[in-house]
Amino acid sequence: MAEQEQEVRTRVREAYMHAGLYGYAIGEFALIKVFDAIPEKGDITISEVALKVGGEQEILDRFVFQLTMAEVLTSPAPGRVAHTHKSLKYKSDTLEAGLICHVFNMLFRPLAELPSFFKKHGLASPKDSKITPFGQAFNHPEWDVYRILDSEPALHNQFNQVLKGLGTMYSLKGVYDFSWMEPQLIGSRAALVDIGGSSGLAIKDTLANNSFIAPEKCALYDLPMVVESTKNTCDDSLKDIQFVGGSIFDPIPDHLKGACVYQMRRILNDFTDEDVLKALKTVRAAAAPDSRILVIEEMLSPDRNILNAGMDVFLMLVGGKKRNSAMFSDLAVRAGLRLNGEYKQTSAEFDDFSVLEFVVV
Ligand SMILES: C[S@@+](CC[C@H](N)C(=O)[O-])C[C@H]1O[C@@H](n2cnc3c(N)ncnc32)[C@H](O)[C@@H]1O
Hints:
This protein is an alpha/beta fold. Helix content is 46%, strand content 14%. The chain has 14 helices and 10 strands. The strands form 2 sheets. It has a 7-stranded mixed β-sheet with strand order 6-5-4-7-8-10-9, sandwiched between helices. Strand 4, helix 10 and strand 5 (218-222) form a beta-alpha-beta unit. The radius of gyration is 22 Å and the shape is globular. Bound molecules: S-adenosylmethionine. S-adenosylmethionine is lined by residues 146, 163, 167, 170, 195-198, 201-202, 222-223, 226, 247-249, 265-267, 270.
């Protein structure tokens, strides 16, 4: 596994662990930018920090005390605070700050709603992506997570930034071989349609490692607001790809029909079985007889660690879940697809993944 990929994975794992232990304190401080108010070198009085962030010293004292005990911050003298190597990671714009704010917004708020959600809907996983603890926490008890994000631009932007930071962990280099498609790339046929492609990192990775694929033959297909944002901010290697706004629950536009590959990387686990079936049927309807459909996700497996297991519960908050290849395969069969192979990337201790390749029946 590439060194950079491993480094990001380790940082993400550590940030998630911190989130579990004292995440609310780090999360609150990251959100109100307390870590930015402390100088990188030397120390500062807590009263000065309070002035900078616009709050009372008394409340900061309480959080600082906890984070000092947790050795996230340090207090060189009474009433003073300084960074440690841990807290420096939570200054704005770092992967860790984004991740902890993400955990704070996306997980803690809906987790707090669980008792009342279960009381209302019964002790069961959400059956409908529109009726979830997440929706209840954000006062939209009948909207799915992506509609809610669409209505909250700041939250959505933060969510997409985090995804961008995590995206490098899922390179297909050495995991899945696209060379089979080279002779099939005839005429105007699309090579790769990345459904839920977000900031285009998966396409970028595929283009970088498969020089026979022309950028204009790749399409990033995601919700309109996401596509618009990626189009305006992506790097030069993606300038020539197609940016197509739409939903996996609507028919795929005609010019993207019959593509060599339809890819769904880390999108299906956000949805209920019923919605995954709908999505797979949409892709099946667009596919040519020789198209291949790639589902890229971390697989549910009995020998995973506690962090991976926790992710399954977190996905439940938005109506999703982790699945193994048999669970995906069952749904795919109902959509007219067949599992053709599983390509595993298992060298990582955290958040490894498989590429499930499906073909049309
Ligand atoms: C967890 S992110 C994964 C992003 C990217 N594939 C990756 O691996 O980094 C899920 C993506 O699915 C997109 N998405 C959500 N609902 C969608 C829908 N109905 N149709 C198409 N894309 C959707 C989101 O906007 C988001 O970009």
